[in-house]
Amino acid sequence: MDVQTGAAIRSKARSTRARSSRSAASPTCRLSGNNGLLLAPQADFLFDRGFISFGNGRLLISPVADEKSLVKLGVDPDRPPEVGRFTRAQETFLEFHQTEIFRSADAT
Fold it and tell me: Each residue of 44-87: pLDDT tens digit?
């Protein structure tokens, strides 16, 4: 199931990592199942480029993301979906994504 849309579309879903293999601190970190997410292609695109992230059971949208582009890709910035809770181990990887990849308003 896609965490962003809730759709059961495994044939189109993509596996992505909150923390890339290049930035992994150890082989254990690199291979951890808690680092992986199954996303729809458009969500994977936005996640990898830092325009969306996940935290506290919600979809987080970067303030620098273009609103019209988000809507075209299926994300309603005015109503970000609740995506459900993550385990503490998953949250650790998502925190890395939020601090190192997710685009903040002061990003250049």
Answer: 999 999 999 999 899 999 999 999 999 998 889 999 888 999 99
Confirm if 42 and 73 have CB atoms less than 8 A apart. Answer: yes
Secondary structure E strands in 25-74? 36-39, 52-55, 58-61
The residue ranges of DSSP E strands in the chain, in sequence order, are 14-17, 36-39, 52-55, 58-61
Question: In whole angstroms, what is the distance from residue 92 CA to residue 98 CA?
Answer: 10
CA pair distance 108, 103, nearest whole angstrom: 9
- Beta strand 52-55 pairing with 58-61: antiparallel
Percent of the chain with pLDDT strictly greater than 70: 87
Global pTM value: 0.80
Supply φ then ψ for residue 47, to 5 degrees.
-65, -45
Domain positions in the chain: 14-100
